[in-house]
Specification:
The protein has about 600 residues and is of the alpha/beta class. The protein contains 18 helices and 17 strands.
């Protein structure tokens, strides 16, 4: 991914004998990429600032005796740069040999097998033997969160996980401990992840180049459930999964594969293919009603803050418990669908709810934590969602099945818990929950739909987005934040206003823990960048545009659900099945 910054001033450099015009301030690495010259990297990620920790990207510059690291060296006018020759090859290969000497030789049993940046470079450099004595540290694996697995033996010291955790998410659950050869990456305080401030967002695993941080793998448990003739297995797919799953099979980011995924679920043996988008529409009915109630009868209790993201919920309970009163009590959509699958659906088809086994296909590692976070997630009388798989896990599961995903013919969803509107699908992108809620809240107050359903003020990748919606003369102030580093800024603003007894600056707030929202969740395909975020988001809004119905309150199956089962939004039954509560949690657990 080229990260050339437009500074307004152009300079010329020479790369491998070819003249290149670039903006002043561009790194050698990005200048080379502009002319399709690949300089190998291992520690550099498009989301993160260069740390130059691995040393693989070294290049030569004429009249400079030193080898320079291309990822962090800015190109200067007239520079003559050599990116590849015999000496550079040997230097880079030696760096890889040294890294491999301290790295476990466990490729065949590693979740990152064939999707590992270190393994790829070793293959590209033709490494067939290890010239250095193996010096692998014996450190315990940490599976304490049951969401993210940490295997510090595989850490290569690139620092990506620490950078994203501390500087982007601003959670500070990971850091480097000790020095020299003994340096290791670990939870702050050298404790297990479960006892640390970790919010299970999985951004560390999404940015790790190797298998040191991966999702807690539960694919074998799903296969076991599908083999069990006593179980009635059903599955649901999240909004963001449909625009990223195809990447695992060579398809373009943002390409909609929804119908193919329904077909896939049935071929794998699931009895029903549901869609979390349906439950997103249901969430809007509950959350939108919750907001309108506060707006019209309890305005001093505003703002209302969305609660769809479990990593954000964990973050709030640990860092901002004083703001819990402003949190929507709505469960996340997939938990709502899980509760309905074991009540409404089970009753409809005459199946023992204890035999209904619900699998969620999610873009998120925190969903694994969420399914067990409280008794509220057992509102059906059983654990509402049995297993949550990440997009990456489901890609691996599909490949192991032998099914040719790309050749599958699209099929329709099981409508009882699957029909969705455009409002339901935009949940997958930052600002989507807010936009969907505005569409329905406006209707609930005015009795008519917005003139234009596209709410541009809450779209895009800006870290904090704000706007004002005119609801029949009432100015509703909205804010959207994504990435917990940005969320901190917004929550601190609320906290300060509250402490000083000032009016709250917003009425309705959407929060997502991951930058870009769920389309870049911690369980999505690797090497996300802002360009890839835009491509996946474009797919989400394409799905919205192509939906015949684009507002949640017009979803016919949602209406039927209320008529036949839930009665109305915020009813006693709705509260029992679809809502939850929050508690203050310590940053560090003993």
């Amino acid at each position: 991914m080229i990260q050339e910054i437009n500074t307004g001033k152009m300079i010329d450099v020479v790369i491998n004998g070819e003249k290149v015009s670039i903006y002043e301030g561009t790194t050698i690495l990005d200048a080379a990429r502009k002319v399709n010259v690949k300089i190998p990297t291992l520690c550099k990620h498009p989301d993160l600032d260069a740390t130059a920790s691995c040393g693989i990207c070294v290049v030569k510059v004429k009249n400079n005796r030193k080898l320079l690291r291309a990822c962090c060296t800015k190109a200067e006018p007239g520079m003559e740069i050599t990116t590849h020759d015999g000496e550079l090859f040997e230097v880079r290969k030696n760096v890889l040999d040294l890294i491999l000497a301290t790295h476990p030789n466990e490729c065949l049993t590693c979740l990152r097998n064939r999707n590992c940046e270190l393994q790829t470079l070793a293959e590209e450099f033709g490494i067939r033997q290890q010239p250095y004595k193996a010096m692998v540290k014996e450190l315990p694996k940490d599976v304490s969160t049951k969401a993210v697995t940490l295997d510090p033996r595989k850490c290569i010291g690139c620092g990506r996980c620490v950078d994203v955790c501390q500087n982007i998410q601003k959670v500070h659950a990971l850091e480097f401990l000790d020095r020299g050869f003994d340096t290791r990456m670990a939870p702050a305080g050298d404790i297990v992840l479960k006892e640390s401030p970790c919010i299970k967002c999985g951004q560390c695993s999404a940015h790790c180049p190797v298998g040191a941080l991966v999702e807690f793998d539960e694919v074998s448990n799903v296969w076991e459930a599908l083999r069990n003739p006593e179980l009635h297995c059903v599955a649901q797919i999240a909004p963001a999964v449909r625009v990223a799953f195809g990447e695992g099979f060579g398809m373009e980011p943002g390409e909609l594969v929804t119908g193919k995924m329904y077909a896939l679920l049935r071929k794998l043996g699931f009895k029903a293919a549901f869609d979390t988008n349906f439950a997103a529409d249901l969430t809007i009915m509950e959350e939108g009603s919750e907001f309108v109630k506060k707006l019209t009868t309890e305005p001093k209790s505003l703002p209302l803050i969305t609660s769809c993201c479990p990593a954000w919920v964990d973050f709030l309970e640990k860092y901002y418990p004083d703001l819990i009163e402003h949190f929507s009590t709505c469960k996340s959509p997939h938990e709502m669908l899980g509760a309905l699958a074991k009540t409404y659906y089970a009753q409809k088809i005459g199946v023992d709810p204890s035999k209904v086994f619900v699998v969620s296909i999610m873009p998120c590692t925190a969903k694994k934590y969420e399914v067990q976070r409280s008794e509220d997630m057992k509102s059906s009388g059983y654990q509402d969602v049995d297993i949550s798989l990440t997009t990456r896990e489901f890609v691996r599961m599909t490949k192991s099945s032998g099914i040719d995903f790309k050749s599958l013919k699209p099929e329709n969803v099981d409508s009882m818990l699957g029909t969705y509107t455009g409002a339901g699908t935009i949940f997958g992108a930052t600002g989507g929950v807010m936009e969907a809620a505005i569409r329905t809240a406006y209707f609930l107050v005015t009795g008519k739909n917005l003139g234009t359903l596209d709410v541009e003020a809450v779209r895009g990748l800006k870290g904090i987005k704000t706007g004002v919606v005119d609801v029949q003369g009432t100015k509703v102030r909205v804010a959207v934040a994504h990435g917990t580093g940005n969320v901190r800024t917004l929550m601190d603003e609320l906290r300060e206003a509250k402490a000083q007894g000032k009016p709250m600056p917003y009425d309705f707030i959407e929060v997502m823990a991951c930058e870009g929202g769920c389309i870049a969740g911690g369980g999505q395909p690797y090497m996300v960048s802002n360009e890839l975020r835009r491509q996946r988001t474009a797919g989400i809004y394409k799905d919205d545009k192509e939906c015949a119905i684009r507002v949640s309150h017009e979803n016919p199956d949602i209406k039927r659900l209320y008529d036949e089962f839930l009665e109305k939004p915020l009813s006693h039954k709705s509260h029992k099945l679809l809502h939850t509560h929050y508690v203050s949690r310590p940053l560090y657990y003993k």
